[in-house]
Records
---
Amino acid sequence: MGDKYASLRRAQLHLDFIHANSTTHSFIFGALAELLDNARDAGAARLDVFSVDNEKLQGGFMLCFLDDGCGMSPEEASDIIYFGTSKKRSSTLKFIGQYGNGLKSGSMRIGKDFILFTKKEETMTCVFFSQTFCEREGLTEVVVPIPSWLTRTRKSVTDDPQKFSTELSIIFKYSPFRNEAELMQQFDVIYGKCGTLLVVYNLKLLLSGEPELDVKTDKEDILMAGALEDFPERWSFRAYTSVLYFEPWMRIFIQAKRVKTKHLCYCLYRPRKYLYVTSSFKGAFKNEVKKAEEAVKIAELVLKEAQVTVNRPDKTSLSSAKDVLQKALEDVEAKHKILKEKQRELKKARTLCLIFGVNIESRSQAGMFIYSNNRLIKMHEKVGPQLKLKSLLGAGVVGIVNIPLEIMEPSHNKQEFLNVQEYNHLLRVMGQYLVQYCKDTGISNRNLTLFWNEFGYQNDKDMEKSLDSVQYQRRQAMAIPFIIQCDLCLKWRILPSSITYQEKEFFDLWICANNPNPLENSCHQAERLPSIPLGTMSSVSPSKTEKEKQLREAIQRYHSRLADSQPQVLDKSDTEVSLKQEKKEVSLMKKEKQEPCSDTPEIKRNSSLPNRESAPMEDLSPSPGHNTSFTVSGCCHIAALLKESSQSTSVKETVRKLASNLREILQYFFPQYQLPSEFGYTSVEELAASFELEQCPEQTNKKLRMCFNQIQNVYMAQYERELKRKMQSIIYDANRRGAVNEISLGQCEEKRKITEDKLNNLRVKLAALLQKLQLGSPAGDQEQIDRYLEALLKEDNPLLRNALNKVTTDVGHGLPLEKNGK
């Protein structure tokens, strides 16, 4: 069946992908926003979103998007049907769309089909993108009819009349417009010389059969059906579009009524901005560097091929080969230059402007509004003290940031950020700046309840809106400047503070000429927005004493952990060396020069060797990153150094103490094992004693090196295996005990249930007994029965005493009878 549509354009995608791609929009208003982004990127000054009833279609109405943007030519309209191709990314202008996916994913999330009408210059083009058509015709690939006409004559623009006729027949059969006259009427709806009309129909339905978008409840809005969200931006499309753009200039009309778009930065009480300088956000720059590196590799491969071609003996094409080689060389140089620029960009610090203010009109609608390239990505994100329940600190505070694409890139659906780690880091930073904002504005230092009472919030529980009295409305109006947009030049103007101005007077149609301020009552005059004060983040670094205290505490914790893990307690009398003395000895050794001498050898150890009092022996073994060095020096030179440094410890005493330390190390690791034959000694004591008698430093260093290699490679490995075995044994024992405890707990729970059942049965029998003795019948739960019995026992009731005596007398007879009866 697809052969008769062989001449028509295809989107080069499987039909199943269309549905899968649309499901990326979990938030349906995010799908609608994609279509608004296209109008804004097209330079539209006005966008109308409205519904047209049509009971023949699924959902009962069509959803239309009409803008006065630049429109599309037939060639440009043909490009939009392909996924992932967009010229906006390579443009120098800052377009919101970057992926060539918004029109298809957004419209297919709302409905199954759309038809687009666009006008540009002297042509009119229609794009028909329909899942219904492909499904009913049995097509697996998406076929897209794209007929075009001349604007003046309304004649077709085609070289293939048969193809044009096929396209129209498909549109008449599967679209809401049944003939060419109705199609021409849609082009007439585009009131200017250029613009675009998008009609989405066969809308998606809920499980109840109702459409996801509700256009009946509020005739001037588009609502999300069945939404229970607190924030109006999540269930009202009018509220969502009012804050959709960081710098709003496009006028938006929903159901023929103007949306009061907000310049959010200037709608807050006591705004303040902070410049956050950081080099943490490198995700997008790293991708650019990788792309530049790949481009360099490709250019170098082309250069190698050109060099091989030049070196060939075939001289007929030598001149052209040299030209290719020269171009390849220039291309490699250009690619390397681009790579260096990208690498420099990667290292640069970036500045983000964080703006904070208080939403005094609706305290509950607070949080962070994160924009990317002027487009809202995340809203009402709680940070810092706002995450705490029932905390007034940070209540009502709104934070705003507009992140450039090169710093942090949003996802394809523009509802998340690709780098989640960098986004979470940004939220933590904004939480810190939020606390700083509260300090700078004095909100954290004053009584927060009194602060909110000034704006009509009478108690802490009233977190929604302030009171509607004129007093509080006037107070709020005086606290925030009244800013409005001109319908002609689209500039924002500030009206003078006066209670006589009401927003509704200027809302539907307002131009600069209506401004009573003579400095801004003309569209030719520049836009002057209110200045926002600049704040600074106070960074209090810890003092020197605090740093030393933190360092000492960290060292104590480290040594405590080492002491806990040490399997053997050493004899303190043999190993005690003060930290002060050891520091002096190490500093002395550092000054020593290596000179050959046949006198008493001195062993110099690395200054990083820990104190013998606080560190276990295994820490003194040489690690892979530190080499324990042993140097021999003349005693004459040592004596001179000792005299210069006024040290009282003799060289022999120093050697003796160091040898004692080494003895302890060796005895720790060689208590159960004999020394290897290479050492020439049968015991550790003989080896340690030889250190002081040895006159050749090279021989001493060799022996010590052998000892430490043996410790590191053999005995440390044995020690680690033994420690691992003990840990596994402890874990196994803990798991076994846990299993036994679980079984015991289950048995106790069964016993408790049996006892509880017996107690309940006893209460039931007791209640029956009381009723039989005509002492009343307590009703209700167990606690009520217990309280009734206690009250009954406290009363001096003769009838109760007689009954109890009778029961006591007969109880011996009743129980056996009852048991026999059973």
---
Amino acid sequence: MALDETKGTIGKTTVARIYSNFVTSVGVIAGSCFKETSGSKLAAMGVPGCQQMLDDMLNDGGGVLFIDEAYQLSSGNSPGGRGVLDFLLAEVENLTGKIIFLLAGYSKQMESFFAHNPGFPSRFPTEMKFDDFDDDELLRILQYQIQKKYNGRMKWEDDLYLRVVTRRLGRGRGKVGFGNARAVENLLANISKRQANRLRKERRAGAKTNDLLFTKEDLVGPEPSSALSSCKAWKKMQCLIGLSSVKESVKALVDSIQSNYLRELAEEPVIEYSLNRVFLGSPGTGKTTVAKLYGQILVDIGLLSNGEVVVVKNPSDFIGTVLGASEAQTKGILAATEGKVLVIDEAYGLYGGSSGSSGSVGKFSDPYKTAVVDTIVAEVQGAPGEDRCVLLLGYKDQMEEMLQNANPGLSRRFPLSSAFTFEDFDSSELAKILDLKLEQQGFSATDQAKRVALEMLERARNRPNFGNAGEVDILLNEAKARHQRRLSSKETDKLSTLEALDLDENFDRAERTDTNVAKLFEGTVGCEKIVATLEGFQESVRSMKSFGMDPKENIPFNFLFRGPPGTGKTSTARKMGKVFYDMGFLATAEVLDRSASDLVGQYVGQTGPKVRELLDKALGRVLFIDEAYRLAEGHFAQEAVDELVDSVTKDKYKGRMVIILAGYDDDINRLISVNPGMSSRFPEVIDFYSLSAEDCFDLLLQLLTKQKRMLESKKPFNRLVLNCLEHPTTDFKDDVVSNFRALSAQPSWASARDVETLAKSIFSVAMKSRQGTCVTVTEAMVEAELDKMFDEREIRGKQAETTRKRVRLQDLFMAPPPAQTPHKISSQYQASTKEDEASCTPPESPTAEVDNGKRKSVRDAGVSDEVWEQLESDKKAQEERDAKYRAMLETKRKAVGAAREAILKELIEEEERLKKEEEQRKKAAKMGRCPVGYDWIKQAQGGFRCAGGSHYISDEELASS
């Protein structure tokens, strides 16, 4: 027979003896021997010891063998247990009618016992279950134990209070670990302990006491409202700075406990709630401190049985190193915190990811962390009356992700709807925390120092994971270190008073912002509009602050920088970081310089997280995205733009960082059209223009003057002579300006950047021609380097065009042909025989027929002599124009003064004509009229004809295409 029971029910041994007497009295067995043992004892005895016990019983005539906690034989903790089980399996059958075997154990654990061998269930067919005691039975057991413990002399104030306390006990019925009669014993011990504490206080107060009376407070505990008034943890929580919403939540919970107390006394059903909670908030907001106080409050008002400690654990305490270890460690921690408060700090560290959740592309589940969460879900039911409180602490976003994507049962046991939310401290609360910490550390601070500290904290708020009270500690630690250095250097004599300089060495930057912009852009040519814009921002900030308003709402944080290369977009972004930092909007003046590729993913689902990760990294700084026009190309880039548009309006990023998208005019305009929300998210546009030829001359002089100061500062006799630039002749300056004007017409001209390159090359040539310690820059050097740069840019331009032509020809043959508009083909061409077609070989790669970027042309069949002669004449005219252009370039190199100026003007006009003509050729090629891919020749009478002669496109068609 198997006796299945729950903990603490009616004595198993008693029932076993009664059953033994019964079977003996009715003659089921002859002997009356009764042996009691346990599974662990049998395992320790082994098979020989078990055999000896059975032999002794048989010598006594047989009887009943009672094995308590029989499941210990199959638990695996006792090496000999399984051998004994196998031995008993046969003996139970062999000793039928001589020895009766009675097994006892808890229902769940006995399952493993019967699973050891399929023969056990058939050998123990009879099962006797012991149910949990109901409330009336628990009440009778409590009354019986009181009478037994105090020999019938103890009285109690009212039967109502006994019913209330046994109903409380009965709410744990059906849960793992419910102790039944043993739980009543523990309850009586707690009642006696409360009575002893009460009597001690009364005797100290000199009041009359009755040692043989259980009062209402002894039985049901103190009234929650009165217990709260004397609770040190509650008083300490009320003294904490800020946390108004958390205090209100705790007060609401205590009020509900008070309501339940009154409902219990009225014998009405109680309002059920769970003690488990989630604490959400940024670092440094007091989550751990409040968790400890909250746990102690629960203990003080009697909701938990063990008030010894509040146990604080981290995720690493739960996670094992091998499979199965995480479950064992978690169960051990939960078992050790029965009746206590378990605080799991940074609980989001238990989230191991979920490959099936949305937004988890590319993530893999961590089986060790997942095992911890699954075990917590299995062991912590979160039901009302559970004698354990588990608190999960962590940052809001990470905790929400874990509760939404981990085991679904976790969110039911720890609902976000009842979470305690810890808001960031506002400025006034940070000021109180600063004063408190200064007092605790034995320091004081001047009013100016406190203002500077609060300004620094406001800037730090823009950083990711602002530390709140922890940020104050960091600030004071750095301030004390600076203060000590100033004390050591005799810069101050105030031993315990912090001054503004101790907090921030540049604390007065806000008062110096009037001159900052001008100084920042000092020496920068053509930046007047940018300086005016930034100074306007500063004026707006000062005005709004004077009215007590938040200037963030009226200052733009998202910008578009439009302009050609080398116009100062990147350097302006760095200077804007300094300006916005000085205005108090950024945590640092640092600029995060990134390209479009840093935002774009390589597979579906990667782009969104990549954009958010970059934005998180740029919080409190300037995010400068160069070549942003690439965000308008491709599906993944479109996804990046959509994510960026969505993110910049969120509270997490809005007003906490400066975002700058930079690129060329047309490309930026095209980017704005990709998403309708871009225009409203990036309303502020700063245009950058190429330097004029005159500005290029001024910049060249500035750069070389800077080199002059650097060179002459190294040694007293060093000299750099710049007379030709500092006091130029009219002809020389006009010549240099003309050269800059010609360079600026080149497609690859990079404005100020190229002027810097030119200045370096001039200085390098001058250094090679130095005489002693004197370095002289001459007119010839300047003009030679200008000519060299012009020639190089011209060659690069031609090479780039040749490369584009080759790519275009290759695309024509390698890619599927574009849709062609129907056109007539000569009858002679149509009459080609099948034999001719069969003998034709596929055309070789077009690059084999390219000479200087042009495909060799052959007269098409059906082209009239008149057309072909005109085409040949146009080809010759084009060659003559090319020869004339080359001659002009050669003449320019040799010409000086006014002659050179005239040639430069002609060259600029000729380059404009060539550029326009080349654009028309590109349009003609894109139209796909010529399937062979011949070049298009400009016709004297207007329009273009392919070099084969068959196809013609008018100027009107090109203009309308």
